[in-house]
Amino acid sequence: MRGTSFAPDIPLPKHPPKQRPAFPSKDEVLAFIGKQPGKVGTKEIARAFHLKNNDRVALKRLLRELGDEGRLEQRRKKLHPAGALPSVVLADVTERDRDGEMIAVPTEWDEEAHGPAPKIRLTTNRRARPHETAGVGDRALLRTEETEEDGGIRHSGRVIKIIDRAKLRVLGIFRPMPGGGGRLVPIDKKQMGRELTIPANATGGAQEGDLVAVEVARQGRLGLPIGHVKEKLGSLKTERAVSMIAIHAHALPHVFPREALAEAESAKAAGTAGREDWRQLPLVTIDPPDAKDHDDAVHAVADADPANRGGFIVTVAIADVGHYVRPGSALDREAVNRGNSVYFPDRVVPMLPERISNDLCSLKPEQDRAALAVRMVIGADGRKRSHSFHRILMRSQAKLHYVQAQAAIDGQPDAVTAPLVSSILQPLYAAYGAIKKERAEREPLDLDLPERKLILTAAGTLDRVVTAQRLDAHRLIEEFMILANVAAAETLERAKTPLVYRVHDEPAPEKLHALHEFLATLSIPFAKSGALRPHLFNRVLARVKGGDNETLVNEVVLRSQAQAEYAAENYGHFGLNLRRYAHFTSPIRRYADLIVHRGLIRALKLGHDGLPSSEDVITLGETAARISAAERRAMKAERETFDRLVAHFLADRIGATFEGRISGVTRAGLFVKLADTGADGLVPARSIGDEFFHYDERAHALIGSRSGTSYRLGDPVTVKLVEAAPVAGALRFEILSEGRAGTRPKQRPRPARDDRPPKRGGQRPDTSVKRGKRRR
């Protein structure tokens, strides 16, 4: 017996056994994700840390936890540390650091979701020309990258293009003072209460109520800052005063350069050269009754092909804007600068001059018009089987509006629609009936939120607010346009031609987590794991349909969604549940559509005015970022104008009571949306009851520290109007309703405060109606 030691008889291995790699920590995973320029997902992380299949479940759990903690988000199918910036961003240069380097912040940033906006240190290019060098106050398009943190800044940026030079001025309303001079009441909510003194020799001839631009001359520690009137922009006494405030506040380009106008006026109507003659096809336009331009026409007919029994041939013809607006022209430069048309209740700031938008490219009845058309073969199941694009000359047979078309199909035709019911309208609605089947199977996000429209008096003041009724006529046009947009994206992808997609990312993990917690308070289940699809949200919406919480849940689901945008890289449209989607149907009012038109002309060899060969994914990505920012600018200007008009309307009703619902809950207080006008106003937290009210983020509620009484998002309330600031569009309410009874909180959280400026809740990411058609 040799004992129990076998070491001498067993040969030692030449190398120690290979150890299993340690599972990465959360910080290590975040650090890895932050350094990767390309796509990062579970596969890339597992490969980097040498994780086997058995570790994938644990890795997914770790990523989910990081999302729930608000440290990780998903954007464009790529994981990012929370607060990371996209590669191209529109930013404002805000300061110069101690070393003289310029510091910028993103123009658009969701502070509620991500905290303070990240700072970007601008890199200096010694060869940069003056127009490529940004200064404090400038707005620029930047290409960014994440760097090692330096002084709390972990992003660097290179200027691609200066969008807007600094304007060291404040906009406001001039109020004269006894003895000469005056004061300026700023129009920005964030500057409310920060008035300026204007000396008697610096009024620039401004009168009571004038909208003026003031240069701040001095701002001492004591007394009001002093300013000098540099420009009179209009008067609040004029009928267009309110929209002019938004135009100047957001620096919306609204005066066309002479070169652009000259090009528009010299344009000649297109003929049949290089076009198919489709003037015998009875296309019709269906738009809102007050539409000034008509850029899309439709037609449908039953397919005679026996192989497509029960199917249809659907045609969508779109004004051929590309024929009149050539790449690099003065019209083109101004169009990309504007990005899109902006719609106010009293006016439109168009992307193109009226000679183009309301004349040559408006598909008026019985007039020859150039168009780019797509002919689509639809099966009885509503699926698109094939499609083809054509450059045509067309002649619209009739100009209809939604209510008119719907009344005709419902058995109440008028003199215009009576001859069209059987030959045109019935085939259109029959084709729509088939397309609805595909839509129901696809299950796009189905939010039900009312769209309000302001009706003005002849003097330009608000008369009333109406909620537009959604008709099948609206849905018909909407679904036809979606089909055409998908066909355009498919064609350009197949031809490998670069394009600008309309994309909509899936909700960020932190927003899903917040939604899950909120729905749990209503005992509504919501799956946080597995593949995320719109139908999961639709199930929640269907569950509350017709109930007391219907509006509330629709609002909260809306807030959980990402905002749609334009991009040269495709990551799908989550809301529509489509893999590829591009805007093609409104080139009169959206520059993105004009790019797609040019791409189709180039890809299909339909002319010599297509997308230039110099346009590639990189340059189109920069353009996409620019026009996405222009779209957000337009939406904000439109929303602020709505607020100002309603505040003007309610200014003489101080002390009146209104019914409404709580539309937002923050530490600042409660935001209440009035039932009759849709106006939003603030109930400051300190004005509620005789106790501290604390903000419960999970429950979207303010809760009394002693009584436990709560006011929750979506609760119906009665409020009294205490103050209206028409210039800023701000309303302040006092709540009259009793809150929900409750028990005293176990812990005393941080008291609510009301030192933040009023802020609207529930911004729509991609659902606002323009000319009766939704932004998709």
Q: Please, could you describe this protein's structure?
A:
With 776 residues, the protein is α+β, with helices and mostly antiparallel strands. 27% of the residues lie in helices and 26% in strands. The chain is built from 16 helices and 35 strands. The strands form 11 sheets. It has a 5-stranded mixed β-barrel. Strand 19 (368-378) and strand 20 form a beta hairpin. The model is unreliable at 1-13 and 753-775 (pLDDT under 50).
Please tell me how large the radius of gyration is. 29 Å
Secondary-structure class: alpha+beta
Helix content: 25-40%
Distance between the termini: 85 Å
Uncertain segments are 1-13, 753-775
Percent range for β-strand residues: 25-35%
Shape: globular
Number of helices: 16
* pLDDT averaged over residues: 84
How do the strands of the widest beta sheet line up side by side? 3-4-5-7-6
Beta strand count: 35
Largest sheet: 5 strands, mixed, barrel
What is the compact description of this entry?
The chain has 776 residues and is of the alpha+beta class.
